[in-house]
Amino acid sequence: MAKKFECVSCGKNPLSKNEIGITKKLLGLDSKNFFCLDCLANFLEVEPQDILDKIEEFKNEGCKLFE
Ligand SMILES: [Zn+2]
After folding, report:
1. How close is the Cα of 10 to the center of ligand 1, in Å?
2. Which label site among 10, 16, 43, 60 has the fewest CB atoms less than 10 Å from its CB?
3. What is this structure's pTM?
4. Integer Cα distance of 23 and 20 in angstroms
5. CATH code of the domain occupying 1-67
6. How far is CA 5 from the centre of its chain?
């Protein structure tokens, strides 16, 4: 059962599995607030590309939170 999450900042809905996964990775597994890629980058004051790089990194480690 896939729950639908939306970005708490801009309301983008639904978020992709990668966006949910990276939010959990960077903000904590029990985070109730999820962000889309752009808003997460903005929140963490990094470039969206940095987030994409992180997602690739976690994927390469075989993390199941990402697709
Ligand atoms: Zn957003």
Report:
1. 4
2. 60
3. 0.86
4. 5
5. 1.10.10
6. 11
